[in-house]
């Protein structure tokens, strides 16, 4: 037994899970599934050169195709189809098969399913269903080089339905899922309490290859600090946080800065906006979604979708990064070794990066402005940003 004050923050740790209501018959063919990995391979550009060239280069093409296929882990025909489509200027699209979701219900499983649908919508140009409407949007051609190097594609979500289910709760100190108290205490039920919310938003598909190169170029001191944070996450059993990764820190921080910025322009309150981070190092994809989904408003007002259009998005991202360069608590904020829950934040506080608890999917942790803007090794300076 533990005595707690009624208003104590550790009295109730809710455990929830959410999923977007998206078309379930979308699953990529091997061509679409491996397209990004093949294009990111170091030999892919040389393969394109030989395909575009003239002369007897078949043996060279076959050799490059074999090497890329072996290292990526796909069939040679898949590599050749991706390269041919690139040379001919065709979009790589996948076939449709039934998506089978098996195993335990976990948030990561849903995110992976959602990202495959987002990518399929980007490849097709649009995707329309009863509860999901998305259309691809071009990034402003006048955007700076660092922005065009980071953001590959944009998807406008004009109609969105999200379902949030309540799995249970924990008290005092959160631990493994086995310690979770079911919401149907004493009366086992085969259903969970859930809500459905409607909204809109936009998705940024980020350049995973650029993020990967930057992550490997970080100084040893920063890599060691990130490794120490990951060890702390495991030792102290912060099970609800994802693995500490420099690329994830950069994406998450950019998401918070952008979320704070578009609040001033879209017409929604800051607590109405939410983020959704799509990042998987194994499957090699990275992206983020800023969306609004409120139970008190069915449909959307269009304000947030408008911020994702080509004539506004680039300006919003540039303004967000500009705001992130300086915090009113600097130099204390940027030089603090660790702050926030568990000390998992570095250069991030309420004056610069933190958002409403209902807006962040990771408890306002794993944030660091330095990952984006540090003049020596930050992501944006490495991409060519003049900060």
Keywords:
DrmB, 387 residues, 2 domains, alpha+beta, 38% helix, MZB, MrfA-like Zn-binding domain-containing protein
Outline the secondary-structure elements:
Elements: E1 13-20, H1 30-33, H2 35-40, H3 44-52, H4 58-72, H5 76-88, H6 107-124, E2 126-128, E3 133-137, H7 145-150, E4 151-170, E5 194-206, H8 208-216, H9 220-235, H10 246-266, E6 273-280, E7 285-294, H11 303-307, H12 313-324, H13 332-335, H14 370-373, H15 379-383
Antiparallel strand pairs: 1-4, 2-3, 3-4, 4-5, 5-7, 6-7
Helix pairs in contact: 3-4, 3-5, 4-5, 10-12
Task: Give an overview in words.
It is globular and about 80 Å long. The chain folds into two domains: 13-25 and 96-383, no CATH class; 30-88. By secondary structure, the protein is of the alpha+beta class. The longest helix has 21 residues, at 246-266. The chain has 15 helices and seven strands. Strands 1, 2, 3, 4, 5, 6 and 7 form a seven-stranded antiparallel beta sheet that branches. α3 (44-52) packs across α5 and α10 (246-266) crosses α12 (313-324). Helices cover 38% and strands 17% of the residues.
> What fraction of the residues are assigned to beta strands by DSSP?
15-25%
Number of strands: 7
Gap between N and C termini: 54 Å
The largest sheet, given as strand count, sense and whether it forms a barrel, is: 7 strands, antiparallel
Alpha-beta classification: alpha+beta
Helix content: 25-40%
Shape: globular
Q: Number of helix segments?
A: 15
Low-confidence stretches: 95-99
Order of H and E elements: EHHHHHHEEHEEHHHEEHHHHH
- What is the residue-mean pLDDT, rounded to a whole number? 85
Give the total of domains: 2
Rg from alpha-carbon coordinates: 22 Å
């Amino acid at each position: 037994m533990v005595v707690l004050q009624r208003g104590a923050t550790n009295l109730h740790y809710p455990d929830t899970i959410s999923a977007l209501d998206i078309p379930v018959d979308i699953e990529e063919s091997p061509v679409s599934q491996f397209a990004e990995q093949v294009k990111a391979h170091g030999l892919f550009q040389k393969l394109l050169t030989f395909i575009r060239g003239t002369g007897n280069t078949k043996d060279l093409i076959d050799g490059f195709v074999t090497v890329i296929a072996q290292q990526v882990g796909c069939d040679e025909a898949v590599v050749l189809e991706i390269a041919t489509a690139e040379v001919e200027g065709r979009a790589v699209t996948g076939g449709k098969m039934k998506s089978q979701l098996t195993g335990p219900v976990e948030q990561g499983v849903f995110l992976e399913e959602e990202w495959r649908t987002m990518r399929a919508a980007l490849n097709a140009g649009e995707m329309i269903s009863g509860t999901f409407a998305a259309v691809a949007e071009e990034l402003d051609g006048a955007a700076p080089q660092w922005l065009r190097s980071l953001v590959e594609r944009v998807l406008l979500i004009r109609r969105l339905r999200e379902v949030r289910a309540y799995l249970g709760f924990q008290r005092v100190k959160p631990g493994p899922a086995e310690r979770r108290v079911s919401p149907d205490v004493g009366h086992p039920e085969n259903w969970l309490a859930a809500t459905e919310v409607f909204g809109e938003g936009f998705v940024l598909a980020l350049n995973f290859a650029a993020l990967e190169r930057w992550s490997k170029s970080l100084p040893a001191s920063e890599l060691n600090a990130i490794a120490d944070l990951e060890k702390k996450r495991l030792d102290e059993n912060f099970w609800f946080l994802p693995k500490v990764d420099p690329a994830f820190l950069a994406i998450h921080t950019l998401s918070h800065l952008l979320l704070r910025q578009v609040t001033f322009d879209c017409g929604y309150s800051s607590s109405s906006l939410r983020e959704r981070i799509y990042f998987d190092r194994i499957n090699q994809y990275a992206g983020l979604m800023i969306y609004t989904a409120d139970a008190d408003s069915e449909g959307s007002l269009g304000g947030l979708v408008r911020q994702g259009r080509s004539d506004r998005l680039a300006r919003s991202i540039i303004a967000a990064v500009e705001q992130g360069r300086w915090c009113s608590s600097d130099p204390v904020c940027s030089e603090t070794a660790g702050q926030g829950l568990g000390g998992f934040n570095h250069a991030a506080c309420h004056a610069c990066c933190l958002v409403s608890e209902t807006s962040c999917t990771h408890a306002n942790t794993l944030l660091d402005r330095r990952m984006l803007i540090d003049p020596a090794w930050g992501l944006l300076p490495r991409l060519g940003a003049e900060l």
